[in-house]
Design a protein that fits this description.
alpha/beta, 3-stranded antiparallel beta sheet, globular
Length: 599
């Protein structure tokens, strides 16, 4: 797999790193499906999913650091050296080793039995899960030497990162590192790295009387998960007790996430890897913990004030003309050839279809209209015809733009790129539509007023009035809709956003098009946000609806759903996405990325 291309400054751009990571995730998912024999495995937002269920993370060493994450933290892959605690990105072999380890876990471990036997104490449970991962890795077939080498490489890379971050300098840190190494060495038969042997020796010597018998029994019982669990539970209980005994010299484990001090970073590797078996929501920005209980079914408190409007009706005629003049100047300055872009888009979007017949061929089907030539000239051989296959863009594409307040700063750059894109798509024979979504008011508006008058019933659902805008519909050619496109520059249109309902609205309009291929391109810079709804419901109410809606559209397969994140990676929401830097990229570069994600 090729490394990401470097920018003019020598380091790969964030966009290139995100695309590279998405390709790497796709390859790792293919490896997982092949080795585990379980279809439906895929990565989304750097998390592993089985269909619509989020899988647990299994073990701390199965989380290689992505180069894109390091870049967001201010570190580039081109830097030869960084601070001792910096999150260096991992190499390709680490990702492959992590995928191999997860595949063996899914292949060799009975999840129901593991859930039944897991201890209640958090630290004992984490050690128990870690030991079960080692058992799965020890069962790698002898005919898979590459898989074994990959897993060893990944574990050593994790160990080096642990030491480089100085997480071993606390008593508990060196205890957990020692437990991780001596248990893995005993179960898998792989030696402890020579560079760590002296570092771990004193702690290993102290642990030997406490866990020696159980440690010896691990490898002997590794082919039977239930027997193995007996000894794993014993080791987990001992380690948990040792951690509790040292609690007077360090902060309690359960408070580490809240306090988040650097001195407590050693436990984060052990706390963060544990994931509940229930699916949770990973937002486009950061993972969020799902609240307990079943999520509420999505609904709206009232739809009386929702509206779908022609965007040009929201702008005065004189202002719309002025905005169009501004947009024309920006498009001219961009200097992008719509004709060239149209040819690129046609190459990406066209489908091969039969388009008549080619007569006068020497092979194929007999052409009845030429049989007279055979009588006149018995040696005539060009009596056949073949189907003429030509590319046709039998395609409809809808662009759905997030018109939330944070997108206001990107309006001019975005409108410029979309204006050129829609013009080129029209030339390529693609039916296009430009839609936007926002709210009719800030903080709930009339919907919130009605809820208060009703006595504030609990869990009211969506509490705002939707405003869905049509800048250009499929029936209108670009020339007649070009004035309306300039309405995207009006700042007052940008308020809050309810993404899930907008996605359903746009997909319903797209499904009404009688074409062979339908593409919905969502342009957004964040997760849904409606202050009134969030305060009156579960904080993840809108997030869950967006995730469920996107997953439903992708599962149906009638619409090709693509995400474009404005300064944000949307891969947690959409299987196919890219990241745009509208402030730092030219219109030509932005359009090149859009063409790429469409392909």
């Amino acid at each position: 797999m090729a490394e990401p291309a470097s920018s003019a400054h020598g380091a790969p751009s964030l966009q290139a790193l995100v695309r590279y990571q998405q390709q790497l995730d796709a390859l790792c998912a293919a490896t997982l499906r092949a080795l585990s024999g379980q279809p439906g495995l895929h990565y989304r937002g750097r998390k592993l999913w089985q269909g619509q269920a989020l899988l647990p993370s299994f073990a701390p060493h199965l989380h290689p650091k992505a180069a894109a994450d390091a870049a967001l933290a201010g570190i580039t892959v081109a830097q030869p050296a960084v601070a001792h605690d910096a999150p260096l990105p991992d190499d390709l072999a680490s990702f492959r080793g992590a995928a191999d380890g997860v595949a063996l876990r899914l292949r060799s471990s009975d999840r129901a039995l593991r859930q039944q036997l897991r201890p209640a104490l958090p630290m004992a449970r984490r050690v128990f899960d870690l030991l079960e991962q080692y058992r799965a890795e020890s069962l790698v077939p002898q005919t898979w030497p590459g898989v074994r080498a990959n897993m060893c490489h990944r574990f050593e890379a994790w160990s080096q990162a642990f030491v480089r971050a100085r997480l071993h300098e606390s008593a508990q840190g060196i205890l957990l590192l020692t437990v991780a190494h001596i248990c893995r060495s005993r179960v898998t038969g792989d030696a402890v790295p020579e560079a760590l042997q002296d570092l771990l020796e004193a702690t290993r010597f102290g642990l030997a009387p406490c866990i020696g018998h159980a440690l010896y029994a691990l490898r002997r019982s590794r082919h039977n998960q239930a027997d193995y669990a007996v000894h794993a539970l014993e080791i987990g209980a001992v380690v948990a007790a040792l951690v509790d005994n040292d609690a007077g010299n360090s902060k309690p484990a359960e408070r580490l996430r809240e306090e988040g001090g650097e001195e407590d970073a050693w436990l984060q590797i052990w706390v963060d890897f544990e994931t509940d078996s229930e699916p949770g929501f990973a937002s486009a920005l950061t993972p969020r913990d799902a609240p307990e209980g079943e999520p509420e079914r999505y609904r709206a408190f009232t739809t009386a004030y929702d509206r779908v409007v022609d965007a040009s009706q929201l702008v005065r005629v004189e202002q719309l003309a002025s905005l169009r003049t501004t947009l024309d100047a920006q498009v001219a300055q961009a200097g992008v050839s719509p004709g060239l872009l149209a040819r690129q888009l046609q190459a990406r979007l066209a489908l091969l279809q039969a388009d008549g017949w080619d007569s006068g061929q020497e092979a194929g089907r007999i052409d009845g209209s030429r049989l007279g030539q055979l009588i006149a000239s018995p040696k005539e051989r060009r009596l056949f015809r073949t189907e003429h296959i030509a590319p046709h863009t039998d395609c409809a594409l809808s662009v759905l733009v997030d018109c939330s307040g944070s997108m206001k700063a990107h309006a001019l750059a975005l409108a410029t790129a979309l204006d050129v894109l829609l013009r080129a798509l029209g030339r390529a024979g693609v039916s296009t539509e430009l839609l936007g979504y926002t709210t009719g008011a800030w903080n709930g508006g009339r919907a919130l007023r009605d809820w208060r008058r009703a006595g504030k019933p609990p869990a009211p659902g969506r509490l705002n009035e939707l405003c869905h805008m049509v800048f250009k519909d499929h029936a209108s050619p670009y020339r007649s809709a070009r004035r309306s496109l300039a309405a995207l520059l009006k700042p007052e249109l940008f308020r809050e956003c309810v993404d899930g309902e907008a996605l359903r609205w746009a997909s319903a309009r797209l499904l009404a098009q009688d074409v062979r291929r339908r593409i919905l391109l969502v342009v957004s810079d964040g997760s849904p946000m409606d202050g009134a709804t969030v305060l009156a419901n579960d904080p993840h109410y809108l997030d869950r609806d967006l995730q469920a809606t996107a997953a439903h559209i992708e599962a149906q397969g009638q619409i090709d759903l693509r995400g474009i994140g404005v300064g944000l990676d949307l891969s947690a929401l959409y299987q196919h996405s890219t990241v745009l830097d509208l402030a730092g990229q030219s219109t030509r570069q932005v359009l090149a990325q859009v063409v790429g994600v469409l392909g």
